[in-house]
Structures are given as C-alpha cells and as structure tokens.
Amino acid sequence: MLIMPCVCIGILLLPWFPCTWGKCIFDQVQKSIKVVSPPTGQYASAHWPLGEAAINVPVTASEENPAPKPQRSKRAERHVESMAVPQPIRIKIWIPSESPALSDWERERLMTAVDEAVNEVSSLLSVRRVPDNLLLNRDINKYCKFIWRNSSTVNHMKCGRAKENYRFESCFGVNIPDEHLDGCAVYPHPEHPVPTVLKPEGMGVPDTDFLLYVFAHSTDKCRAESSLLAYAAHCQADPEGRPLAGTMVICREPLNMERYTHEHYVQTVIHELFHVLGFSKDLLSQRKDCSLSSQAGVDCWSHGQVISTDEMGQARLYSPTVIRAMQKHLISTHTDLGAPLENKDVGSDGLSSHWEARVLQGSIMAALLVEPSLIRIDHITLAALQDTGWYSVNFSQAQSLVWGEGEGSQFGSLSTCHNSSTFFCTDGALGCHYLHLHKGKCLTDPYLDGCHIFKPLANASECWNKENERSGMNEGSGEIYGSDSRCFISNLTRPNHSSSHASVAGHCYRHRCTGRNKYQIQVRDSDWLDCPAGKSVEVSGYQGLVFCPDNRLCKYSDLAPPTSRQKADNLLNVGASIESDHDVKEKDATPQPSLMLLSSVIVSKEEIIVAAVLSIMAAFSLLSSAVLIYRKCSSARVRVHAANEPPYRSPLSPTQCISRN
Questions:
Q1: pLDDT tens across 282-328, in order?
Q2: Considering only the top CATH level, what class is 3-57+82-280?
Q3: Is 98 a known active-site residue?
Q4: How far, CA to CA in Å, does 376 sit from each of 356, 371, 550, 591?
Q5: What is the pLDDT of residues 584-631, one digit of tens each?
Q6: One of 116, 263, 272, 342 is an active-site residue; which one?
Q7: Do residues 148 and 157 make contact, with C-beta atoms less than 8 angstroms apart?
Q8: Domain residues of the chain, as ranges?
C-alpha cells in the first residue's frame, strides 16, 4: 500500500519538527561561484561560432565575383534582435540528470511551488527576450591551454591548444548538458584559420530567458539545518551582465513532512529567484542604464558608484528608481535617500544582498523570511531590479509595504528607533504586529541592532484564525477570532470578571470597513461601533478602552489574511515549465525539452478507504500535539539558506566524463 507509510511517518515525526527562524546567506555561496560570460574585447574575436563567417579564407574580388559585404555574425544578429520591446521573462526550470528520483508526492509539491513562484516573477519582470534558443557559454579558461598572442598571426587571440582533461561545464555542482552550451574550438596553427572543433554548438533551450537548474535532495547542509528550505546561485551571464542561468537546491526532507506549507516554499523560491536574477551585491555595484531605446547595448551607460555609506556609516543603494521609491514610501523630499542594505552577516566588502531590517521590515528581500502573510513583494525591491537596466518592472503588481510608510528620512535609524513610534516598541510589552493580523510581543533580533518591534506570538496569535478561539478563555476581554478579526490594543474587561483591571495588550476583535482608513469594530456581545482612526472608544458592558490604529486598517486593498494555510496536495497537471534531462533522454528526437508531467498513484478503492480510516485515527490520537506544533510553526521564521559546498552529485558511471581540472 502506497499511502499508509506517508501518512504514518508524517504524524509520528510531527512532534519533533523544530520551528526555528533563520537567515539567508546567499552572499557566501555566490562568492564561491565563478560566473561565466561571453568573451569581451580582444577575446571576443576568439569566441566562435563556427561556420563560414568564422573561417577566414581569403577571397579575391573581381567584377564577376565581387567582394562580399561585411556581415554581422549570427550571434551579433541574435543580440540585435533581442533588443526588442521587453516581454515577460521566460524562466525555464530544468531537472538535472543527477537529481535523485522523487516520489510522486514530492514531485507534485515541488512542481506546484516552483511553478507558482516562476509565474509570479514572470508577471513582475520583463526582458528583451533571447531570440532563438538560449545557449550558455563555455569558460575559455577551462577548455583552452593557451592563446595565440602574436598580433601578426592570423589567429591572434584565439585558442591554440585545448586542455586534455576538459569534459564539461558546471553550474554550482550541476553538470550543464552539452545541448545547453555554445560550441568551442581550437586553432592548432597560428596561420591556419580552419579550427578543430572540440565541442559542437548545442541545440539550446527554446523559449527561455533564464535557465534554472532545480533539484531536491537531502544535502549535508539541509540535514544540518532543519529549518532550511532552499539555497541558490547564478553561474552564467550575457554580455551586459544579466544572469542567464543558475542552480537552486530544494531541501528534500520538508517536502515530505507535516510542517510543509506551500506558501513558505513559494515565498522562498521567489526570494532566491530575485537573488539569482540580479538582487545581489556583486551585481548591484555593476549597474548600467540600458534604456528601452538602447540599440544592442551601445547606448548603455554606467550609473557609476551606486552603493555608498551615509553619514551614519549605513551602506545604501543610490540608484535613480530606488531613490524615488524611497522618497515616495517615506514621504520625504530628501535628495540623497538611498535604500539601506543589511549591516549583519556582511562580507569583507561590508555589503549585503538584503535590505536593512530596521528600515524595510517585511520586504521579500529582507534577511529573515517570516510567515508568508507578513511578507511583501514591495516596490522598493522592484525598483532595485528595474535599475539593473535588464528588466522592465510591472510596478502595478507591487504589494503595499506598510512598515515605515510616511515616517520620514530618519525612520529606522538607531538614533530614532528607541523613541516613541507606532512601529517600534518597548522591550517585553504585549501588543499587535504592525499589520494587525496577529497579536504580538515586543522583541528584537540580531538584525534589528537593539531596536524592538512587535512580533507574532508563538501560539494562537492569528486573529483571523477561527480555531484560536477557545471557549472560556477570552470572555473577559471580549475577543472574537475570525477571518474579519484584527488585532487592537485594548484593556477591555467585563465588570464582573475576576480581573476587573486588565493590562493594555493586543486583543482580537471583528472589524469592517466603512471608507478609507475608516472602520467599525465589534466586541463579543456588542453592536458594531465606529472606531475613529487614531483615537479610542469605550464599549458598552466593558471597562477600559479600545485604541483605533491610524493608517493601518481599511487603507491597503492587498492586505488580507491567507485564505488557506496550505495548497491541496492532490493537484495534477501542474508545473508545465519544469523540464528534465531524463525526459529528453527518453526521446528519440532532437534534444528539445519536454514537459515533466505528474504520474498518478493507482490504488484500489479498498486501499483508499483503509488508509483514510487509519489516517483519521492517527490524527485524532495526536491532535493536541499537532495543534500546538501547527500554531508554533505558523508564526515561526523560515531559514532561506545558501551553502558553500556544491550540492549533491551522484557518482559518475565509467561512461561519464570526469573532469581532472
């Protein structure tokens, strides 16, 4: 029987799942990767393509046989064609051949999460699409032993001899198929223009602007970090520096466990995709303006030094669109208002590939990823991607970044975060998370530099979750949990309750909007009451007050509690953008990628009934533990991780190439 082991194992392991929070150390892994780009300058002439244009056979001109007109190489023609009107980026997911075989259950979860994340990113970013098929580059330093450097020779700056042990190119531990790679050749004699082909040009990957190698495995880093979900790096770039390919490792264990949530995986993949597409400190400092009117990159110009430190020593990104986005968000006319970069876990250069948490809390590119309902794909992050010069961004899809809105240019600075604020708080106090979806406690973390904010409570903090309403526990303060409930600072208590003088804390009450920044609230057994933003109200039948937050509720149309904590695990026919080396090898045709479709699990009706009954019995027997762990995990942070070691690679068979470089 195929279903029973999955159900039983998941339930038995549930109590041991840690719900720790963590950080993204993308910078460490990207630092260990050599990014391969097309040769430029004098080396560009040594970069084939092969073909008639690459064979410099002298031609004598005559009236009958006039000299041919100079023509662009095919690669140059393709590049000019690529400078067309930007269109949504086509991200192709490729499952490498060395990937461990996944069960249908694992594959379904992986494909649904990756497919949703890719679709989301494609709706946000547009590029000048790669014409024809995407071909990745070969590293000339890897295959070439020496280059002809005598400027008087025919083959000046071309590869003269190949390294005997050259076999393949790789991307963060994944062997890149030859079908995905450009060709390479050597010119054995300095005066003979006919090359010797080392590797022919591959077919390339069709309909692709970025190729992401994805595989799920239990790597050493995944096993060492129980909260780790994924890590990634990019390894190939085009002539303008835009990343063309990268590798993402998905930790396999969480795909099988009860703590798995679809939303966490989607959020993590989006975070890592933004990194490999350009939100990287190594790429932030190399930004160019390649406006939409540019022709083949000729009109691109450097933004100059876009990363600098302010008077307080805070590293900031000072690119044009980012500055305007920061001014709009903080409502400031400060002309030198860059977006601050995280000052923790920085490298020797003092830079980070994440936003500073004190100023841009809740951004998708902050170092800590918390519960998905509290993370925003914000306009400042999209502005940073726009300023790479590679992407046209759909800002209409940006999500509201409530944190710090309208607080001025000094918001989040160490000199002001300890002052009275609607966003920062005093250590240990109880209140509401700033989005008012959760009750919270005033805490700090290493990324806040001693500043404190309200973070969701570990258990039963979600006001929107009806399941958190337990009989008899909230009668004194009149709390109501449900999809339309939000957190309010209050000290309400019933006169006849044992504690007639309640302390001020966060409580859950119903709300309904009556206009922009206008709403009513309802406490248990009360009528709907107007709650003027920025003021407080009394409630008949209760002692104390409810404080009405200003500019938080009924202002942002895209702020709402999640409708579901997890996607259904029985979705079929998804992941159309995911492809596999295995699928290609099974076909007797040209190496065109094929769809990796889900295969259904066939079981008998009796097996399904028995499995369902056993599952229900097991679930009831451990219901208490499950509820506690769920509540704890739903508010826990998720570690988005990157590792220095390459991902798992299965042992090579004797017939496979082994690099001795």
A1: 887 666 665 544 443 445 555 567 899 988 889 999 999 999 999 99
A2: alpha beta
A3: no
A4: 15, 11, 20, 39
A5: 444 433 333 333 322 222 333 444 444 454 445 544 444 444 444 444
A6: 272
A7: yes
A8: 3-57+82-280, 457-547
